[in-house]
Design goal:
By secondary structure, the chain is an all-alpha fold. The chain has helices spanning 8-21, 31-49, 57-74, 81-84, 87-97, 99-106, 111-116, 122-133, 138-145, 152-159, 169-180, 184-192, 201-212, 224-235. The protein folds into 2 domains: 1-145, no CATH class; 161-240, no CATH class. The chain is globular and about 55 Å long. Pfam families: DUF6339.
């Protein structure tokens, strides 16, 4: 696969074409035609398997499509972390290749989830959510992400707090691991006593990490990144 991209100006124009011609899909060729077909298929599979009674349907869709998208793209020749870090690649994928899949989640004209706000480009967002949560294999990662404590807000909080010194990948993965293992009763009791409803334990830990990495290198912390993450929870008032 040749990595194709759309810059902001190109994405804006392509988005106008997509909205004007909706629901007709843009023309793509070769590898991207296959990518479109494959992602459409597992998108429908996830949606058909989503229980009607589930309380967090949007999160279920995001997490499960994210896991499949993550695994799928790594198996596409030419895809790499450099491409994953390129917002223009996600713009191309969102508007030119599978805009119908994005539309099914966010509507066909929601520009921020297609191209205009990088942190909210849906395909980019769910791919990176899985990458930052990765536990070594798909099954273990899925088990963590399927924990009831996570919501669509978790996706935003995990990605939007990278800090000025960048992203310490293992720190995020340990945060996800430990948070997923806290009993729901403990979380409910903790969150009941926070200042605002929005400040749940996950958000507090993420905010604390953003501040702490400014003065502490997690890799140099006594006991390494694992103990650094445990200290974040301890400082927040929860033992893990």
């Amino acid at each position: 696969m040749i990595i194709k991209t759309l810059n902001r100006s190109e994405a804006q124009n392509a988005m106008k074409e997509w909205v004007l011609n909706y629901p007709s899909l843009p023309e793509v060729e070769g590898d991207y035609l296959k990518i479109r077909k494959d992602i459409q298929e597992f998108n429908q599979k996830v949606r058909s398997e989503c229980p009607d009674s589930i309380a967090k349907k949007d999160y279920y869709i995001d997490a499960h499509i994210g896991i499949l998208l993550y695994d799928y793209l790594w198996r596409v020749p030419g895809f790499n972390l450099r491409a994953a870090a390129n917002d223009d690649f996600w713009r191309y994928l969102s508007i030119k290749v599978i805009p119908d899949v994005v539309a099914e989640r966010w509507g066909y004209d929601n520009e921020s989830h297609y191209w205009s706000k990088p942190a909210r480009i849906w395909l980019r967002s769910i791919w990176w959510y899985v990458h930052l949560s990765w536990q070594g294999d798909m099954q273990t990662t899925a088990k963590v992400l399927e924990t009831p404590c996570f919501t669509t807000d978790s996706i935003l909080n995990l990605e939007e707090r990278t800090g000025r010194k960048g992203t310490f990948i293992n720190v995020y993965r340990y945060i996800m691991y430990y948070y997923s293992h806290i009993p729901q009763q403990v979380l409910d009791e903790y969150n009941k006593n926070t200042e605002t409803q929005q400040d749940d334990l996950f958000r507090i830990v993420m905010k604390l990490n953003t501040a702490k990495v400014m003065v502490v290198d997690p890799a140099l912390y006594l006991g390494g990144e694992k103990e650094y993450v445990r200290s974040l929870f301890m400082d927040s008032g929860v033992r893990v």
